[in-house]
Amino acid sequence: MKVSVLDIQGKDTGRKVELSDAVFGIEPNDHAVYLDVKQFLANKRQGTSKAKERAEISGSTRKIKKQKGTGTARAGSIKSPVFRGGGRIFGPRPQDHSFKLNKNLKRLARKSALSIQAKENNIIVVEDFNFETPRTKNFTSVLDAFGIENKKSLFVLAESNNNVYLSSRNLKRVKTVINTGLSTYELLNANKVILSEGSLEGIESNLSK
Hints:
It is built from seven helices and six strands. Strands 2-1-3-6-4-5 form a six-stranded mixed beta sheet. The chain is an alpha/beta fold. Pfam families: Ribosomal_L4. Keywords: Ribonucleoprotein, Ribosomal protein, RNA-binding, rRNA-binding. Belongs to the universal ribosomal protein uL4 family. GO terms for molecular function: rRNA binding; structural constituent of ribosome.
């Protein structure tokens, strides 16, 4: 699959790159994608919600009324969940929602996501670029050139670039990552995936194993 290489003004450079069919042209595995996205979202959960149960409530432990003869139900403690101010029954406790996935499955999920985006013509290859200073205006001009200023976009760079990252940080619909930091969720969440020319080799070598 051949794709034209554009510059940051959105113009064709006259060069084309070959996207590997082993990464960008496979039959997507929906279940692998589902599991990888599920893990990504689960790992983001804090799991810090907590409610006090009857053993953790501060209060007297005396028996609040006699066992028999009151005509009402037995009651042994003011901390009982049936009373106002008592402990909660089976309340939430801090927990870790994360789970592990096989590396090969995660690799398959990312290849599936890239293949889905490639099939829908949502992948743009741009020549490597840099900014002299970090300015949001510089990055906005790049988005305007590609016509994606109002769309969610994922920029994939060959290596960490502080000026490019800081220029894009204030833009709500833009995410900038390096080729080793790709995630299935972010790939599918973007309307357009912009790959720098230098990132292709790293992506294909990482996912072709």
